[in-house]
């Protein structure tokens, strides 16, 4: 096991670390001159020599999957956008509202490589014949918003944004929009509502945003990391990109993996898709803190199911993690040790989800607070055995198809897995509450 943390970037090789290799050359790449010196905008310039349909074919061949958590192939999503009828604007949106607990990968990319995100958006915008773009960024990401606005100003000065970009005949405007701070804005239609100045509630689908999104016009929404993949793919091709992963038949390319919690060196690392959780925790995060033993881990943020040490050697790809009973999510692991009370840890997560519910549908609005109430009672030694049964019922009543969007089902994932693997801790808090310390007591 390593005793020192590995850097966030790889070995400085653009052939193996398309997302972060530039950070091996310098700590951050903010100026246009520095970015262009490191192959910056070469992918975008190549895209301009191709027809939009040809660029789309490359992205579809590369099977670029969304990096926001859902993992839907970007090329297929783009192909569903309504054809350009030249009757009005077409929108491209970057979902940079990174509010998933335990997730901080997009912040790194925006603060240290703002031009890389913008180049990816330019490639997508050209492919989709979009006319206007928005980076919908979490309000707390003040530095990231500043660097992105600075980069946009630089691009306007040299003709990379505006009318007739690089004499291509195509024009595009890009803006940074600071969000007001709601987790539900991670859902693309709630994000669009917020962008329009409305309450951040999810919309009914259909129509899908690709047909009628922002201000009723065709719109595509993708995650920060998704766009960051595009420049390298345009330069080196789909076959190269697919070959980066450990198992070419599953998730192609690399992924920014991360770890937080009771590990020695929390951080981020760009690694091939299919890297195991054990490699992330032990080889890159330095293993558990001294004297602590791994008890549980969330594979991709707070809205994924808990897994156990028995799952550590599974490849961190979507199929393997799904078969284990969880979701890949953002690939940023949250690590829990044996001393942590799973009742308290679960209650803490459910409090977040209950607070962040938009309140639009009854199961989510009323069901999540009930889960918090029951968990608090159990944690404080005031619970009853039937409370466990009620929590089990909530995981079914708030599941997919029972609520308007995926917020409540996501909230149920850590709860249902905690009941699956550590039900004895819930029972112990009821039968002998003094034997199971609360999370607050451990802190």
Taking the sheet with the most strands, its summary is: 4 strands, parallel
CATH names the topology of the largest domain as Rossmann fold
Quickly count the helices: 18
Mean pLDDT: 92
Instruction: Please indicate the percent range of residues in DSSP E strands (runs of 2 or more).
Output: 5-15%
The structure class reads alpha/beta
* Fraction in helix: 40-55%
Query: Which class of the largest domain in CATH terms?
Result: Alpha Beta
What's the shape? globular
**CA-based gyration radius:** 22 Å
CATH superfamily of the largest domain: NADH-ubiquinone oxidoreductase 51kDa subunit
Q: How many beta strands in the DSSP annotation?
A: 8
Number of domains: 3
Family: Belongs to the complex I 51 kDa subunit family.
Enzyme class: translocase
Cofactor: FMN; [4Fe-4S] cluster
Keywords: 4Fe-4S, Flavoprotein, FMN, Iron, Iron-sulfur, Metal-binding, NAD, Quinone, Translocase
Short description:
The chain has 443 residues and is an alpha/beta fold. It has helices at residues 32-37, 42-48, 52-62, 74-79, 105-112, 114-128, 142-158, 188-195, 224-228, 230-236, 238-242, 277-284, 318-323, 342-356, 362-379, 385-397, 407-431, 439-442; strands at 91-96, 132-137, 173-178, 219-223, 254-261, 267-272, 294-298, 332-337.
